[in-house]
Amino acid sequence: MAKGFENFESIFGKVNAEWENPSSESSPLLPFLYHVHGLDSKHLRIHVTDFKSYTWESTKSLTQLEDLKDDIGLGGSWDEFVDYLLGSIKSDNVKIVLNGSPASAFGAKYAKLVAYKTKGMPIITINLDRLVDSCVTDATAYLSWQVFNAFKSRQELVVKEQHRSYELTKRLWAEQEKKESGQDQFDLDFSSKKQKPSNLGASDKVSTITTHLSDLDPISGPEIINCQDKSIPGSLAKMVKPQLVPAYRRQLKVRGVFLDDSEDDTGN
Question: What ranges does the record give for the region Disordered, renumbered to this chain (predicted)?
Fold first, then answer.
């Protein structure tokens, strides 16, 4: 990032506090809420408060942050330093250390924010100044307002994502219904085709066989019909004889009878 905080996104976090020199008189401390934000393009500001007893603040310029980079001995570019600084503040390794007398009426006079990204990495320490009177009210009011704005922004993002998810779900349902409708139509067409009668029915078969029989040559004789053929209706099979006597054999038999009658007349 460039050396500036124009587009700096605020950082919020909850942190526990501890006494630097605890004693038997040390009272337990409330959890603190901290807010890191860009005050302007050249300053980074930190607010830390428990909303009751202590409110702290620190403002760092670009020059002071460069000095901090040298103090902790972190090499590399400016962008790498800023990434490490923000990563440390966002991590779980953040605490507030209070310095002072817990038993005194004034309580802690100083505090510091201590953070590091991972164990064994350089430790960032930022000194905090305690706010009093109206400055406390201003700081806590500003922090509360920024917390609300951040919540509102996140809520709007969630609503947008929910709306986007709903629209995608509607499209998915529509595509699914379209697919199921097409499948139902296909099944209906396929079923209707299966239920259609065959092109050649029983009556057509009878008509076809009768036509063939009428076309037979009476002299050469009909062809032999297989009565076991299941494609021929039973009534037709009974009407058709397995064999037919040729016409010339029928005529010969008649002549034979006529000759026999002539011989009997002659003999008489």
Answer: 184-203
Q: Write the CB contacts of 130 (distance below 8 Å, at least 6 apart in sequence).
A: 54, 55, 56, 108, 109, 110, 111
The residue type at 255 = R
What's the predicted TM-score (pTM) here?
Answer: 0.58
Which of 151, 177, 212 corresponds to the end of one domain?
151
Q: Which domain holds residue 253?
A: 204-267
Residue 139 has pLDDT above 70, yes or no: yes
For helices 62-71 and 78-90, give the axis angle rounded to 10 degrees. Answer: 80
Structure tokens at 46: 């930190």
